[in-house]
Specification:
Keywords: Isomerase. The chain is of the alpha+beta class. It has helices spanning about 5-10, 130-145, 150-165, 170-180, 190-195, 200-205, 205-220, 260-265, 265-275, 295-305, 320-325, 350-360, and strands spanning about 1-5, 15-20, 25-35, 40-45, 50-60, 65-70, 75-80, 85-90, 95-100, 105-110, 120, 125-130, 230-235, 240, 250-255, 280-290, 310, 330, 335-340, 345-350. Helices cover about 35% and strands about 30% of the residues.
């Protein structure tokens, strides 16, 4: 399986701060070594929409600043010092907090080739006046101590679950869970719902909790037995195709892309399957994740697929493709098998699951 694209991964690298439970005033006093003057920008980042919005700014004078602002509940904000885009994350509980930073040891990045900025993530950062930040740093410490990369997810949940039990109202806890889920969106639905059910108070009123609840609702919408959401996309000749036009047939949605090696390796198999069942009421709809049609069309010429092909679209800049998002397809290939009424039978990344169901049906 392959992630949708490298840009999606880059955009998940935020430079986040978290603030307090109702409409809250905060003051962040800061000092940074290595930079004398400039501007400190504090922004709110929403990982669900991948958008940032400004909260407040402050002047950096002789390496010091005082930033004052108001936020609606505890939340992750981004602190960036300009010029240079020196960024870090701080979790503020409201009231006064203090941050000391040093440019020494910073991790530099350059994403200008992808139409984004270059800058540095500050590594030498100390925060006081925020219990939430202290808790979050303990979480980060637990993760960094795990040297076995295959156990990182287990280590994260090993910290998050007891933390939620001890502090169910902490926004820091639901933020930790949201960060974990960002890279583990295949977490069992029952496990995610069980963890969310423990949150209360400010945590249950937070943006992160709301986003995770939305994830639950979207994942439930594609459970077997539900009617698949209808959609319209363009075919290679720019004419429209609407999913509901296939009613009366069993339909497999094949989420793929020209650059996806396992997607293309599966094509010979689907050619055999299509030849076997197409005259018995079976159809395939290939939905490409390519945003460049020339690459999509070149791949179709090379693979010579006989079934319907349409191109997913990207209506919001820097967001995943629209239909792939609706069908919760974080990796490709992904296959969704529908019955003759358009109801979902199977959602899987494995062609063997589709094969078994088709053998039952035919």
């Amino acid at each position: 399986m392959m992630k949708h694209n490298f840009l999606s991964v880059i955009l998940l690298i935020a430079l986040p701060i978290v603030v307090n439970a109702q409409n809250t005033d905060f003051t962040l006093n800061g000092q940074i070594k290595g930079i004398r003057g400039g501007v400190v920008e504090i922004n709110r980042y929403d990982s669900k929409t991948r958008t940032s919005s400004p909260v407040t700014t402050a002047k950096l004078i002789n390496g010091k600043f005082v930033a004052k602002g108001k936020v609606n509940g505890p939340q992750m904000l981004g602190l960036v010092v300009k010029p240079g885009n020196w960024g870090t994350q701080v979790f503020i509980d409201g009231g006064n907090a203090f941050v000391q930073m040093d440019t020494i040891g910073s991790e530099h990045y350059d994403y200008t080739a992808y139409g984004m900025d270059k800058g540095a993530r500050l590594k030498a950062v100390k925060v006081s006046g925020s219990a939430g930040h202290a808790d979050y740093m303990q979480y980060e410490k637990a993760i960094s101590a795990e040297k076995n990369r295959s156990k990182i997810n287990e280590t994260q949940l090993g910290f998050i679950k007891p933390y939620i039990n001890q502090k169910p109202s902490s926004v820091a806890g639901v933020y930790m869970l949201s960060q974990h889920y960002m890279f583990n969106s295949q977490m069992p639905l029952t496990e995610l719902e069980g963890m969310l059910a423990k949150f209360k108070g400010a945590a249950a009123q937070s943006l992160y909790y709301g986003n995770l609840q939305q994830e639950v609702a979207e994942r439930k919408a594609i459970l077997p037995g539900n009617l698949a959401e209808d959609f319209t996309l363009l075919k290679p000749d720019s004419t429209e195709f609407t999913l509901s036009s296939t009613r009366g047939k069993y339909v497999m949605l094949d989420f793929w892309a020209s650059w996806c090696k396992p997607c293309r390796e599966a094509i010979p198999h689907w050619k055999e399957v299509y030849a076997r069942y197409k005259d018995k009421g079976f159809e395939i709809v290939g939905i490409t994740n390519d945003n460049r049609w020339n690459l999509w069309k070149k791949a179709m010429e090379e693979e010579k697929m006989d079934w319907i092909q349409v191109a997913d679209d990207f209506p919001v800049k820097n967001m995943p493709a629209r239909i792939a998002s609706r069908f919760k397809s974080p990796t490709i290939p992904q296959y969704v098998l529908l019955d003759k009424e358009g109801r979902i039978l199977v959602v899987t990344n494995h062609k063997e699951d589709i094969d078994r169901k088709l053998n039952e049906l035919f």
